[in-house]
Amino acid sequence: MLFNSFAYLLVFLPCVVLIATLVRRFYGPVASQAVVLIASLTFYAWFRPAHVPYLLISICANAWLAQRISRAEQPGRKRWLQLALVLNVGFLCAFKYVNFFLRAVPFLPRHFSLPELNFPLGISFFTVMQIMYLVDCYEDLLPQLSLFQHASFVAFFPYVISGPLAKAKRIAHQFGNFGSGDANRGEMLARGCYLISIGLFKKVVFAFAFGRIADFGFALRGRLSMLEAWTFVLAYTMQIYFDFSGYTDMAVGSALLLGIQIPRNFDAPFRSLSVIEFWKRWHISLSEFINTYLYTPILRSFRRATLATSAVATMAAMTIAGLWHGPSGNFVAFGMMHGGALVVNHYWRKKKIAKLPSFVSWVVTFLFVATAFAMFRSAGAHAGLRMLAQMYNPLHVLNHRHLSVLRGTMSMKVFGLPLLAGVVCAFYGPTSDQMERSLQPTLRLSMAFSMLTVVSWLFMTSNIPQEFVYFKF
Length: 473
Description:
globular; mainly alpha
């Protein structure tokens, strides 16, 4: 059941909100929490019922491990954490990375591999969330959760499949009183509906329009000119932003309808003036995980923190983050590209090298981000390098044969305005979070967002619902 489907928007979500609200009023927050947990497991099972046991096994095992960690004394406490981390990483690797690592073993036959496992939807997200929870338990940053609380936190349907990555210490306590109380319920409902309408429009209008161009371009086998390569890469850059930020808006909005506030994940990342700033604005929950649970522990493993050891820690953390997206060389390369850019960025700041004008900084940052996304989107590292070579080939610049074919398959009357509006929204004006926080419901505003919803529904009725990009990870 996709967020951008009528089944979710008109049946599942309204029913869950209505039933949970009524149950809370008559039977209390615990019963309402149970309703949401059952709804979350139903939502997860809708995609792949056979994978529900994997989610439940992960939840039960990590709840038990958290109990062991919380009750143990040192040095046993540390050993329990180490065991928990090994089991979680092993669980993730068993489904996603076994054959990727086997292919890297030099003495094995080239085509040796184990049967590919169809990995559970959202495994990268719910595994990482539980790793953060276990580490926080080890450091006594939050009280141990009961199995019921732990399951409610991990399986919560707005984020179980594609995030944002939520920390238990920020989320779990909200289930106990089911949000902020009746006094704010009307406001939270309005804000939730507002974000859902924005996120839906981003996905089914903006992301779909840019996706048509990107999918066409990346499916081509022929040689591309520099103009064509950059057109397709920039289209994908916009597609993945509107797709993932649209998902996040709908996830945050869905949670608000239930009285739960979950992390925000985007803050106009394409307006960044450096790669450092980009990672403070893009996939913010993943950036926090990289910094707190990867970079910092790696840096602490060195005797002293220097510019060199910080560079090594950055490269290692970003390479792991790239691999987290999937078992493919292009994801590893994506992580290494950003790791290298961050190292250069930090060195530039540390040594106080000449400061670039803001416009130049923005152009350089955005072009690098788009270049890295070319590798991210490609079907493997080899295909990614081929696309990069075409993007930076001064000997073949302006040919537009493929663009002419594309123009014949797309109606500019239908897609021209969304493409233009999408570019404007990505670079100018308030973000959806800023608009939601300053929400002042008026008749004019209600009419505007009703129109957004109507346009979104028109696009939904004209096309088969498309999965969100991050469902693959």
